[in-house]
Queue: 3 jobs
Job 1
Amino acid sequence: MNAPALILSDDQAHAYDQVTTLLRGAGVDLVEGTCQPAQEGRQRVMALMGKAGSGKTLLLAELVKALEATGVEIVSGDFESKRRKERRTLAVLAPTNKAASVLRMRGVPATTIHRIIYTPVYDPEYEKLAEWLMGNGEKPDLEELTDEAFARAQASFEAHKSVPAALAAAGLRGSDFITGWKRRDEPLDIGFVDEASMLDDRQFDDLKEIFPNLVLFGDPAQLAPVNQSGKLVFDTIPDKQKLELSRIHRQAADNPILDLAHALADPQLGFEDFERLVEEKAAQDERVVWAGRVEVDLMARSPVLVWRNATRIRLIKAFRNVHGAPETELLPGEPLICDGIELPLKHRKKRLDLEARGLIKGAQVIYLGPGRKPGFSKLHVMGAIEPQVSAASIVKIEKPDEEEPFIPYAARMGATFLHGAAVTIHKAQGSQWDAVQVFAPDLYAAARMNRTEAGQPLWKRLAYVAITRAQSRLLWVVRNRLSRPTGGLRIDDLGGTPAPLALEMEQDGPPML
């Protein structure tokens, strides 16, 4: 078989060979380490499916390494070299920023589908700098950058493979080198899509227009997109173009969290039976906890996962109450979730500045305190290269039985946030945390409703997604109770230095960064 040196299971090696065959037909030979110019031809689509722990991400990462070794260029979404006929490219994509960041944390240069469809236009002088960073040109002569600034940019790019991050390290910001956005009008080449269960039909159609060679990686047991009536894109792909991985790899075969997730596949298993399994695992292994209450200390860094929106709002209120948070302001250390950027279309490059610094829809953020101007907040963006930033903010805190949210901070436009102490299981897809609390009463309510999705009881799909968000520890919360905090909210554990270029947007007149 054509598997790489890393030891793979039989099903992984078979899948690797199948992708190798697909790419060889497209002119890229992973065995010989060569690639030929792209040729017009048929559409190639393949789906590699597998449940949590089956090694999908490991396989994707090894394929990316092999493609890079052939000379295929990675397209990141933040900069592309000028198109050359002989150039072959690969883009590693995810449907959401959260899912893309999970891949990046594992060393895979991933971006979002949106960032591939809409690409930035660079100022010509800084385009030369970007090409140099990528090894495609000579070092440019830019008077405004010192040798030290060039060195910082090069070191940042080698570490993170991000052009905007590298230019920021050199003392520049997005509005200096990005002049606008454009919708892609030319196709790309090879596309790998992770978390493909989250794709809807429209996204899948867009991807097939852009990539003549497309490989989807996904979990068929995940929840379907809310607008898909319980159907996954895998259902539309012919069986001969699908492969399913079965062996469990991640976190060792004896992982009790994965054992519980895979037990849900038993069609005879009811909710009460499953809870007995959870209780048994908790008695045997400290990685599973049968919890009589929500641990409030965990909520500051890892949200409680719930099914019902009303439960989410009640838990957030309880979290704030137990910490003595006033209604009129946020406390430093409160968790937030970025809900998007509210900027008019003419300020699209300002949006890119925010996104380049990690303020993207679904990003987990910790509030540090008020900014220098009214409506501004100092924030720590979890997982960002330069995590600390000051930005115009619109913070919305929903309350039980009230239609309109309470807004303690509101700029006229900027980054919008919801409270992040609890989140719905649907929105948690694509994310992972070290420890996860699952609010079991919500799943019991779903079980009582006897709802199904894609032929499976809805509660099982919800439980599967929620459980597999936990990397090391699962807390199965069985009662509607909240613990008392062991201390106040904190920010001293976050680390990172204040960003040298705070993203501040004026409230008066056009937004300024």
Job 2
Amino acid sequence: MFCCYLLCNMFALLLLYLLHAGFGTPITSQRSFGIDYAHDCFLKDGKPFRYISGSIHYSRIPRSYWKDRLLKMKMAGLDAIQTYVPWNFHEFEPGVYNFSDDRDLEYFLQLAEEIGLLVILRAGPYICAEWDMGGLPAWLLKKESIVLRSSDSDYLAAVGRWMGVLLPKMKSHLYQNGGPIIMVQVENEYGSYFACDFNYLRYLQNLFRQHLGDEVVLFTTDGASKLFLRCGTLQGLYSTVDFGPGSNVTAAFLTQRHSEPKGPLVNSEFYTGWLDHWGDHHSVIPSSRVAKTLSEILAWGANVNMYMFIGGTNFGYWNGANMPFMAQPTSYDYDAPLSEAGDLTEKYFAIREVIGMYKEIPQGPIPPTTPKYAYGEVSLERVGTVRELLNDLSPSGPIKSIYPLTFVQLKQYFGYVLYRTKLPRNCSEKTPLSSTFDGIHDRAYVSVNGIPQGVLERSKLLTLNITGNAGTYLDILVENMGRVNYGRYNNDFKGLISNVTLAGEILMDWEIYPLDIDRAVGQGLKNEMSGGNIPNYEEPAFYVGHFPIPSGIPDLPQDTFIRVPGWTKGQVWINGFNLGRYWPARGPQLTLFVPSNILVSSSPNNITVMELESSPCGTQKCLLEFIDKPILNATLYYESSTEKLFTRDEWLDHI
């Protein structure tokens, strides 16, 4: 370390001599960030530097809360933040880009700079992140044979166009250009992917250098295993590793040394918690365990990024899934130091105490936990089934096809599609309706002439007995539960991806309705209930309610949580904002986080619920409840469980 400082001082004296001698224009400061291989450290402005960082995903946090979360991270003693860029969050359709409002990445970077946080940018194109398709846009699957994350020419062409938009925006935010970005990750955990395509990594390396220049530090991240580092690393990209609490820190960093004999030690993903799946326990990692391993990492003099420091929320349809198919819930709380709603936790203060042992903590007050308000019960009324509201939900009408089409073929990348055909024969006795080759992706709600028959589910329920008369409508409402985000199955097609048979006979002549539910909800659903009819609450249906913000109470509206007592599975919107999925019948998540920025005081707030299976409205009170605390660990049905904390790279071996 002393030699490093000495070299820095000698360089400064030489520079002053050259300036006084008339060479060049005086420079007040020269920002730089790089690697000192001789002394196994980073150099920031010519001086040895070690960062302590935390992950935050701007795509999972409302823009109005970015500053609050970043300030809390700064006050915990962090030098830097790490964030992913989800490609599909910004390029929803080919060539159509959105960097505004909650997608304003440059504003997020400016906030970090103003607060005094450096940024480690994980630019992709693939990010994993428990995000739909690992951040890759679903429209890439228009070429069904495409090999994602490889040298496939069509894939590379799309990546080149996207990076040609993203990276020039990032260049002015690089540290040497006056911004906060000190490092940029190329791809993500590529050593865990089956392709092992070094030409692909070289293409990305050249692409990033072309747009960002030669000064920025480019790096890779892989699990702390020689097996993963073999395919995930490339000369010219600095290799880092990831591992969680309870790991052998010495062994993990010796593994990094296998790829990088010299240079700084870096854990790019030190897990403060873990991800959840529907039907499994909510993951909880003790604060003491996290603090102990963090202290060991810092005692090594290593650089560390805590994944996650705040998890946030998978609003809308943005959650991912793992294989064998297990979708992740709406909450991405992750048992992180800051909760899903940005609350200060015991783990936050335990980590802050550890950091304080190794560096000076910023002085001053920590932004407090944001207040929550329990608005109470809100009554709902049924406005119609999906079948009754088809004209609103699919205004362009059906697409006709002999055989079923996938979501991608329909250019419907998220949400729901209704597949309709007619029964070719009488089914007075229970007759098996089957999906060939596990072709339900991911969950299907089956009815005949509006009479519910049951549910088909990917990899679990592939056959269902139905009844009905020849010529009556068979409706199959298919839900995209989130695309696989990790492993070799990112090419996750949705919908009916193979034929459906009735007693072994292939069903044909389909009318297929892509459902634009978000648009319809935003415009307001019209009540389609027929007077005198007894509603069938088992058929997928919509319910609407309203609630005002109480007057006379200061500082309202405030954050809150929706609880859905008696409801089974579905989706919730407030004032047209898609909060995400609920599934209390499976758990572990029973509440949805409602950020205050989507609530209004000037008029009653509108709530829309799409219940897919069974509401309480036929036998109990038809209501939702707003409470002031989340319930994330109330699993009623366990599909699987484990007490072991896995890295992403261990996950495939486990399952």
Job 3
Amino acid sequence: MDLPFFCLFMLFILSHGLALNECKQSRCRKNGPAIRFPFRLKNQQPEHCGFPGFDLSCTETRDTLLELPNSVKLNVDRIDYVYQVIHTSDPSNCLPKQIINFNLSNSAFKFGDSSRNDYAFFNCTSIARREYLFMPCLSVPGYDVHAFYKDSSVDTLALTSCKKLYNLSSVPWELISGHNVLQLNWSRPACGVCEELGKHCRFKNNSTKLETECFDKPKPSSRVGIKLMAAGIAVGVFLLLVMAFMLYRNYNSDKEEKQNQARVKKFLEDYKALKPTRFSYADIKRITNRFKDNLGQGAYGTVFKGKLSNEISVAVKILTISTTNGEDFINEVGTMVRLHHVNVVRLVGFCADGFRRALVYEYLPNDSLEKFITSNGDELPLGWEKLQDIALGIAKGIEYLHQGCDQRILHFDIKPHNILLDENFNPKISDFGLSKLCAKDQSIISMTTARGTMGYIAPEVFSRNFGNVSYKSDIYSFGMVLLDMVKGRKNIDFTDENQVYFPEWVYNRLDQGEELRIRIKEDKDEQIAKKLIIVGLWCIQWNPVDRPSMNFVVQMVEGDGSKLTMPPNPFASAGDAFAAAGRFPVQKLGAISELEDS
């Protein structure tokens, strides 16, 4: 047997042996649920060991964990492979907390056969507690949360002293029962028939249609064979390494070695550009070809197009010397190095060379959202479906800033000009010069004066008479961006902007059931426009407590707009002061110093 053939033979034995053993049944702990097809252990077994959407993982405490869409995580207590039911519980022993995040439309699982009802949740701190309606794990001292059937008579429940929090539809009884037990079913793949026959289930060989088949359970005596196979695999690996080394010495020429070295060198150069790098000012001049291609100028500096290589273009922002002692620079670099999200612009590097400071970002060829939502007539440059996709991307980016990092990041300058678009018009949030970091459990922050851009700035940031500054301030700004996307800055119906305030105008039209007449030609476009308007109006409620969280905003933008309810009228509640604040002309406010809460 010659050397190459022997190596191929050993490789076949090795791969075949591994394939037989890599999908074996496993558990996270000795008495934990058995994990086998259609389930698999993520990051421990190959994808072909499980059906799409059936990934499980082991926690540090050896619990079995199931992750559902919208960051819902449940412990798996038992799996019934015959009836295709998975029994789960909440790790924190509070299933009601997960209610608003449940969205199984894109999941492999569905709720069980238990009854479902529509519920309304109230803060009823001011009335006597009703134990059968009381939600203890949603409540804290001085804040009692109750759940009522929506079809019950609220007149007899003394709810006039309660404050409504939110409605939830088609909720399984288990989620509010307090038992912390939830059953989920799956219908595909239909492996229950295999289990009833005393067999197991797996993918068919060479199947490209996710087809499954039954096969006999491994016999206990096969464990000895598996151990022998493992020993054979170890010997095979050793021989394979020896043969590979010999092949490397005998069959690689000097020319091929030089080519390999060149490829490695290029890879390292490209990889260097994928993480934040500190550049000198001489590097910045070389990257921008001595500031040849000016992309635009803002309040904090000028942006130039540059190149790290023939394949990698960047945007370089040269910061102007400001009176903030570099606060905007420190904010932006300190924040951006923490961020890794498809809807947040990526920081490639920075320059701090004496008094010269610059930020180097990934280059996005389609400029900012502001360019595409303005028009002189009835034509919408991007179309309503693309606007909806952009709105969803922005919402997911803000949700990541608020919940996806170790510390909550408040942007404080969400506006169309700071939403950049890539070659496929996917949105990316940029410009973190005014951002602030705070703990996730810190609900209120202190600032000495307002920051942001008038027209998008939340009323509580402008004046503390409207409430406390928190992450809800970004949600207000996002709501104004949504309404801007619907309106278009140069729409012919709003030529006199000093007389007609668009958010109030559009609220009144929707509330009275009148036609919108805003660049709409088809029914589906009007549905999207109405949905974006309603979500935007929810976000700009004058009281920060009345604004939804960004997680809930994402669900509203993703969902069916016909099921959304109109929010309260923010303009009637806020009074003349709020209306006046909303009508201020758009102008930039500088970065400010802050006082931290103790």
